Amino acid sequence: MSEKALRLGTRRSKLAMAQSGQVADAVSQVTGRSVELVEITTYGDTSREHLAQIGGTGVFVAALREALARGEVDFAVHSLKDLPTAQPAELVLAAIPEREDPRDVLVARDALKFADLPRGARVGTGSPRRMAQLNAYARAHGLDVETVPIRGNVDTRIGFVHNGELDAVVLAAAGLNRIGRGDEVTDFLSVDTVLPAPGQGALAIECTAADADLVAALAQLDDPYTRAAVTAERSLLAALEAGCSAPVGALADAPPTSARPERGAQSDGQIVKEMRLRGVVGTTDGSTLVQLSTTGPVPRTHHDAMALGRELATEMLARGAAGLMGERAL
Predict the structure, then answer these.
(1) Least confident of 169-173, 174-178, 205-209, 272-276
(2) Which is the catalytic residue, given 11, 65, 82, 227?
(3) In this structure, what DSSP letter does residue 177 have?
(4) CA 1, CA 33: separation in Å to the nearest integer?
(5) Quick one: pLDDT at residue 272?
(6) How many other CB atoms are there within 10 angstroms of residue 138's CB atom?
(7) Which of 172, 179, 197, 257 lies 20 to 30 angstroms, CA to CA, from 56?
């Protein structure tokens, strides 16, 4: 086709470039147009401050959205967990593709599992959510670990383990898988132990609402089940009035007795009819957690998914969740 290439805005990190490249290939297939990556540096990439001090992971999104608004790029790819819950009216999440593994993982020296870390082990993470749940698990199981706040890309974080500065780091399974480094994982942290960040493992493909043709084309990459799940998770986060850097974990998935469908098809002869939403809020030292869950029909509409998240958030707030989140988002 003679149409000009679509411009995809992406952060410059190795992970962002990898996942944007994968989306670019998929968009080319559904549109018949070539896609060029436009690298954009965000404040979150250049600042060395801890994320909680500079506004949370949302700082990775602002520059991409500004490029969209100025017409410098046609669409952008975000890690969904980085997106603030408030959606600008002029932009639309045209597609949320099928989710990668949402779990957190450990990369530790000597191939250690979390439960086998030595006393006083130093575990690095930039996430208050991870700190809260890891410290709570350690308290409950008689482990003695120290969670250490860190920043940096995947290479930097794993480097802290290789150079002996840390005994282990906690990362997202999805990110390691997308850059081909999943074989470095030494322990997959069960979601029963550590709930992931709302939207973790999912990507968001965003463009301007005014570009109806592009919105329709990108929508072909949308996975309805993933969209329903992450919408419920993000609704919980929003209803708690918590920002991206708050110690909030959430995961919507099929209950244990149900099978996960592949894009709406039957799985093992069974179609998923129920969705379980779990949420957790905790103090970073792990001394107090509020953790609840609810199960209901798989949401069929955006409104139903939002309602599922709000209902669980209301229960969590009634159990004292607001007092555990530090500064709440305004």
Answers:
(1) 272-276
(2) 82
(3) H
(4) 7
(5) 76
(6) 20
(7) 179
Token couple for 314: 């209301």
Question: In the chain, what percentage of residues exceed pLDDT 70?
Answer: 87
Tell me whether residue 99 is one of the annotated catalytic residues: no
Question: Quick check: is 65 catalytic?
Answer: no
* Amino acid at site 240: L
Beta bridge partners of 145: 121
Catalytic residue among 7, 109, 139, 151: 151
Give residue 55's pLDDT.
Answer: 46
User: Hunting for tokens 């002029």 — which residue is that?
Assistant: 90
Quick check: 145 and 134 in contact, CB under 8 A? yes
| 213 among known catalytic residues | no
Catalytic, 81? Answer: yes
Instruction: Give residue 264's pLDDT.
Output: 44
Annotated catalytic residue: which of 11, 99, 103, 130? 130
Catalytic-residue membership of 273: no
* 328 is known as an active-site residue: no
Q: State yes or no: pLDDT of 47 exceeds 80.
A: no
What are 195's two structure tokens?
A: 């709930």
- Residues 285, 291: Cα–Cα separation, whole Å: 15
Distances from the Cα of 163 to the Cα of 109, 126, 170, 206, angstroms: 10, 18, 16, 38
Q: Categorize the per-residue pLDDT at 321 as very low, low, confident or very high, splitting at 50, 70 and 90.
A: confident
300: left (phi over 0), alpha (psi -120 to 50) or beta: alpha
d(CA 256, CA 233): 18
AA identity, residue 307 = A
**pLDDT, tens digit, for every residue of 232-277?**
999 999 999 876 567 899 999 988 765 554 444 333 445 778 999 9
CA gyration radius for the chain? 20
Of 99, 157, 234, 276, which residue is the catalytic one? 157
Q: Which strands form 187-189's sheet, in the order they lie side by side?
A: 145-149, 121-125, 168-172, 104-108, 187-189
14 is catalytic: no
pTM score, two decimals?
0.88
pLDDT at residue 49, as a whole number = 52
